[in-house]
Amino acid sequence: MKEGAAAKGNPFAAIQEMLARPFAEFDEIKFAQALGYIHTDQELDLLQALRFDWDLVPTADNFRSFVRDRLLEDVLSTHACRGMHHKTAEQALMALTANLVHVSQTKPTLHMRISRTHGRICTIQRYNRTGAGSTVYRKLIDGLVELNLIERHIGYYDRYRKRGHQTRIRLTDDMRLTLARELGEQHQVGAREDAETIILRDENKRPIDYEDNSETTAMRGSLSAYNALLQASEIDLERSDEKDRWFDLHRIDKSRKRYVRIFNRGEFDLGGRYYGPWWVSCPSWIRQHIRINGEHVSELDYSAMNVELAYSRIGLKSRDVLGDEDDIYDVPGFEQIDRNIRKRAMLMLLAANSRKQAVSAINKHALRFYIHLGKGTAENLIDALVKRHEAISELHFQDLSLPLQRTESMVSEEVIRQSVEAGIPVLNIHDGFVVPVEEEFEVRGFMEGAFRALELESIPKIK
Q1: Which residue in 57, 176, 155 sits closest to 107, CA to CA?
Q2: How far does Cα 95 stand from its chain's mean position?
Q3: Given the DSSP bridges, would you call strands 290-292 and 235-237 parallel, antiparallel or unpaired?
Q4: What angle do the packed helices 401-421 and 339-351 form, to 10 degrees?
């Protein structure tokens, strides 16, 4: 049944159709539209605004000259920007203008989101080369509004509901016409060449500074080589109406091809996953239509990687304990529970601090998809998993999510190293890779070899 056609005869048809879909295909944006939370294209544009990226700058000389020699003088003459430090204002305006132009080129009606809250924009030079914080950007935005060069929707935060939205801005039609007239239709922007790719965050997920050592220097060099290979490769998506609608709804920025690695809680032995490019945020049914240098792709995943890493952590092989089963997330007596929920339950057995926290997380995960498990179901599921994985009982409820991610990222790093050396552009998706179909056999060997190279006992199946 087609979504639009069903809704004509039944106002709840779109909701029913969404709820009837397989678990993995649930789409929160479309569901919000069906419920009436998103009514117009403008509301969607505001909701799906692209985030401000302080590493984005003009790359063309005429663009930089326009900002430095003309726009900056006008902005500094406004009431909002009087007395601002000239050099700081110039660097921040370069980044702000580059972002506004990039968003406009993506889609003219789209917005950029940026925080006006004091202290929310990192000023650490390692990450933010401009050194400009929230106050500087707030003044520049106010100045651009004063000049009628941008539109602004000021953000808010509801302390009671603990929800809010950052401020949204975009170029006015007059400013877009001015830029087109002065600079041509395409104004080149890109990431800074010295942009930091090894990011360390604190307990509150805010970037913090650190001293470089041989390990961080090596990781940065490896990541630079990986990003260079991807930048030199053509990574695109086979077009179709369905995929175009999905991208239009979710506002994925397909210009993002650069990976960064993020470490957590102020420690380089926690986290370390690869983030950044547009394909990381896409569902698998979108990724299967990626083309790398014109070639079709395969997606290779480690099956139940966190479980295998947990068994490896204490020197066991999961198949020696559980048998050589097709699906490690099968739990006798719980076959009727969606696999995605059983998978989340297994992860919480390792990631939660307590049984109570694990049960709460399972129920919340199910309710997010409008699935009510029923009284006692989550408790019984977690207890069944405790019994089934008794061999690793010392790891139950030990907050292992980030330590396991660190090992996972080391596996990814080894696969990426071998792929770069072989000149094969692979796209990391945390515990898997999108690879050119012609290179599938070789990359599969890299993935199996990475576990052996790191002396991990429990090697997962590769799907």
Answers
A1: 176
A2: 21
A3: antiparallel
A4: 110
Pairing label, strands 112-114, 167-171? antiparallel
CA distance 2 to 10: 13
Sheet with strand 112-114: strands edge to edge: 50-51, 112-114, 167-171, 150-153
SS (H, E, C) the chain: CCHHHHHHHCCCHHHHHHHCCCHHHCCHHHHHHHHCCCCCHHHHHHHCCEECCCCEEECCHHHHHHHHHHHHHHHHCCCCCCCCCHHHHHHHHHHHHHHHHHHHHHCCCCCEEECCCCCCCCCCCCCCCCCCCHHHHHHHHHHHHHCCCEEEECCEEECCCCEEECEEEEECHHHHHHHHHHHCCCCCEEECCCCCCEEEECCCCCECCCCCCHHHHHHHHHHHHHHHHHHCCCEEECCCHHHHHHHHHHCCCCCCCCCEEEECCCCCCCEEEEECCHHHHCCHHHHCCEEECCECEEEEEECCHHHHHHHHHCCCCHHHHHCCCCCCCCCCCCCCCCHHHHHHHHHHHHHCCCHHHHHHHHHHHHHHCCCCCCCCHHHHHHHHHHHHCHHHHHHCCCCCHHHHHHHHHHHHHHHHHHHHHCCCCCEECCCEEEEEHHHHHHHHHHHHHHHHHCCCCCCCCEC
d(CA 273, CA 253): 20
Q: What is the pTM of this model?
A: 0.86
Range with the lowest mean pLDDT among 116-120, 150-154, 300-304, 451-455? Answer: 116-120
Count of other CB atoms within 10 angstroms of residue 451? 21
**What average pLDDT does the structure give for the chain?**
89
Is the pLDDT at 11 greater than 50? The verdict is: no
Task: Please say if the pLDDT value at position 286 is more than 60.
Answer: yes
